[in-house]
From TrEMBL:
<dbReference type="InterPro" id="IPR036388">
    <property type="entry name" value="WH-like_DNA-bd_sf"/>
</dbReference>
<comment type="similarity">
    <text>Belongs to the LysR transcriptional regulatory family.</text>
</comment>
<dbReference type="InterPro" id="IPR036390">
    <property type="entry name" value="WH_DNA-bd_sf"/>
</dbReference>
<dbReference type="GO" id="GO:0005829">
    <property type="term" value="C:cytosol"/>
</dbReference>
<dbReference type="InterPro" id="IPR050950">
    <property type="entry name" value="HTH-type_LysR_regulators"/>
</dbReference>
<protein>
    <submittedName>
        <fullName>MleR protein</fullName>
    </submittedName>
</protein>
<dbReference type="Pfam" id="PF00126">
    <property type="entry name" value="HTH_1"/>
</dbReference>
<dbReference type="Pfam" id="PF03466">
    <property type="entry name" value="LysR_substrate"/>
</dbReference>
<dbReference type="InterPro" id="IPR005119">
    <property type="entry name" value="LysR_subst-bd"/>
</dbReference>
<feature type="domain" description="HTH lysR-type">
    <location>
        <begin position="1"/>
        <end position="58"/>
    </location>
</feature>
<dbReference type="GO" id="GO:0003677">
    <property type="term" value="F:DNA binding"/>
</dbReference>
<keyword id="KW-0238">DNA-binding</keyword>
<keyword id="KW-0804">Transcription</keyword>
<keyword id="KW-0805">Transcription regulation</keyword>
<dbReference type="InterPro" id="IPR000847">
    <property type="entry name" value="LysR_HTH_N"/>
</dbReference>
<dbReference type="GO" id="GO:0003700">
    <property type="term" value="F:DNA-binding transcription factor activity"/>
</dbReference>
Length: 299
């Protein structure tokens, strides 16, 4: 079985037309026809049915079954090509979410710079969800990711670096500013300034909503943490933020939650299980673990 035949068949299932597939790959139509016939012989089945005009085709149940495996095989081959190429690259494709990048990663930056590795990082900055997808797709080598659950599984190698609590943040002018802790259900009448969906926070916030049987009023969403803090400081609303991102310079009041159920902000160093790290990647991984695990793992 040829990978190229599976690639042609996968595109045929999408375009439903032999000529269109041939044009897409800049080959002659018989090339596509022969690829399908080889697959049909290989599996002793019919994969496609042509209509009388030959203008379009139907995928048979056997074809749909093969298609499920074809997608996985093609993706794995592409991932293999990316991983093989990465072994020879000096640069490390590195994923870094904004909060972790601003408030957590700097602890390791000086060590990376001393080792001559900081300049080797090709950094992608976006939310943890998008970075996780990019990592799984082979577009990143390593990422520092935030989550509310362990990311360690059969596909990913995740080293937990820190567990941080989520806090309610309020303005010094807020009527809640005199409190040190509060139950989440007591916030049902408050106005919230929240992060956009590419952050981990909405997941944790939603879990607390369900646990407390409330539906808080979210009046504004932003992906800019500085803006969120400024709006809270001006008492426009209150916020829900990991303690990772809180500093004394914010001039905000943070309240601990008293609920028995509390999601945590987990920070992990993640790479794919199928990936053999290059020498440069190994050095980056070792430094990140040594630097960021120190005094950062909060139970």
């Amino acid at each position: 079985m040829k990978i190229r035949d599976l690639t042609y068949f996968s595109k045929l299932a999408s375009l439903k037309n032999f000529t269109a597939v041939a044009d897409y790959f800049s080959v002659r139509q018989p090339t596509i026809t022969m690829a399908v016939k080889r697959l049909e012989r290989e599996f002793d089945t019919t994969l496609v049915l042509r209509d009388q005009s030959h203008q379009s085709i139907l995928i048979t149940p056997s074809g749909h079954q093969l298609l499920k495996h074809a997608h996985r095989i093609i993706d794995e081959v592409e991932l293999t090509n990316l991983d093989m190429a990465a072994l020879n690259q000096e640069q490390v494709r590195f994923g870094l979410p904004p909060i972790i990048g601003h408030y957590f990663f700097p602890k390791a930056a000086s060590r990376l710079a001393q080792a001559g590795l900081l300049s080797q990082l090709a950094v992608t900055e976006t939310g943890s969800g998008e970075l996780l997808t990019a990592l799984e797709d082979g577009k990143l080598d390593i990422a520092l990711l935030g989550s509310t659950h362990s990311l360690n599984n059969s596909l990913l190698n995740a080293t937990l670096l820190a567990k941080h609590h989520f806090k309610i943040i309020v303005s010094p002018k807020s009527h809640l500013a005199s409190q040190q802790k509060i139950a989440f259900q007591d916030l049902h009448d408050e106005k919230f300034i929240m992060q956009t969906e590419d952050f981990v926070h909405p997941t944790a916030f939603g879990a607390l909503n369900k646990f407390s049987f409330i539906n808080p009023n979210i009046i504004y969403k932003t992906g800019d943490i500085t803006l969120l803090k400024n709006l809270v400081h001006e008492n426009v609303g209150i916020g829900f933020l990991t303690e990772t991102a809180l500093t004394p310079q914010d001039e905000l009041v943070s309240l601990a939650l008293t609920d028995s159920f509390q999601p945590e902000f987990l920070i992990s160093l993640v790479f794919r299980q199928s990936q053999l790290p290059s020498a440069t990647q190994k050095k980056v991984i070792d430094i990140l673990i040594q630097a960021l695990r120190t005094d950062s793992y909060h139970q």
